[in-house]
Amino acid sequence: MQFSVVTGMSGAGKSTVLKMLEDLGYFCVDNLPPALISKFADICFSPDSGINNVALGIDVRGGDFFKKLFEEVDKLKAAGYKINLVFMEASDEVLIKRFKETRRRHPLVSTGRIEDGITKERVLLEEAKRRSNYIIDSSSLLTRELKAEIHKIFIEGKSYDNLIVTILSFGFKYGIPSDSDLVFDVRFIPNPFYLPELRTKTGNEKEVQDYVMKWDVAGEFLEKLKDMVMFLLPKYVQEGKNQLVISIGCTGGKHRSVTLANKLKNTLLTDNYSVNIHHRDIEKDFHRGK
After folding, report:
1. Which of 8, 62, 158, 218 is least surrounded by Cβ atoms within 10 Å, i.e. has the fewest?
2. Cβ–Cβ contacts within 10 Å for residue 191, how many?
3. Are residues 122 and 214 in the same domain?
4. Is 159 within the bounds of a domain?
């Protein structure tokens, strides 16, 4: 039996994860008071319970009860139960946006600012994050991408290093993505835009990819980029980083950057990293952009 506790920042996706686990056959309970965890576990682990896998959603809504979380978790571990802790994370900017879009108030502030509630919650959850087996940053994850991460952890049983890599192609004419951790400029590669037969195509299409990669400088750059990224990723994992955005830009974000982003993604997927890809500017200003 898998017994998992899902916790983390309010608005980071705990309820969504519980629904996904429920669809995967887990018996899910949201907002169970931590003081009841060990009693609930005894019921679940009894031979005649009929329950195979369990997931509990526990967060700061429990107030002072939340302080008993690790007391209960340690008690279960001492009894020989295997407990997985999943921590849902997101940036302050994303959390604020989500609260405003849903018009919800933060559970830690009744009349104050959302930012104040987020700050208080981060302090309260420091130990929870530190002790978690899995940290999932949902800041830039689409629902299907989050579902893939959950499937990878709970169904495929693959190793998970808590680092989600986002590869982002973009056009410099539209600005550098503000959430970039690493930025690479590929405007030195010959531009397919100047070939009429390729102008309206993108780096998602084979004809453009073949043109971009036929230049020795493109292949050499890709190999050096792969070497550097593969060197850096384990270092970021050791540092405790859980979200990395690698941005690759050309003039308009349609041909060269898209091609190189796709090539880099294929490399990282073969090394079992959690990788998402977004082409930010691929649909913009098609007839005038480069």
Report:
1. 158
2. 19
3. no
4. no
Closest CA to 257 of 141, 164, 167, 145: 167
Burial class of 110 by CB neighbour count within 10 A (0 to 12, 13 to 18, 19+): exposed
Q: 31 with 136, same domain?
A: yes
Encoded amino acid at 72, one letter: E
The alpha-carbon radius of gyration of the chain (Å, integer) is: 22
Give pLDDT, residue 108: 87
Q: Summarize pLDDT for 144-174 with one digit per residue, the tens.
A: 889 988 988 888 766 566 688 999 999 999 9
**How many domains would you assign to the chain?**
2
**Residues of the domain holding 211:** 164-279
Amino acid identity of residue 22, one-letter, is E
Residues 150 and 172 in one domain: no
pTM above 0.85, yes or no: no
**Residue where a domain terminates, one of 100, 124, 154:** 154
Yes or no: say if 58 and 125 are a contact pair by the CB < 8 Å rule.
Answer: no
3-state class (DSSP) for residue 126: helix
Per-residue pLDDT tens over the stretch 13-26: 999 999 999 999 99
SS3 27: strand
Work out the end-to-end distance of the chain between its first and last CA atoms, rounded to an integer number of angstroms: 54
* 286 within domain boundaries: no
Order the strands of the 3-8 sheet from edge to edge.
27-30, 54-57, 3-8, 83-89, 134-137
pLDDT score, position 52: 84
Closest CA to 272 of 121, 186, 164: 164
Residues 40 and 119: beta-carbon distance below 8 Å: no
168 in the same domain as 133: no
Beta strands in 117-172 (DSSP E): 134-137, 164-171
Please tell me whether residues 15 and 150 are part of one structural domain: yes
pLDDT digits (tens, 9 = 90+) for 29-63: 998 888 888 889 888 888 888 888 999 999 887 66
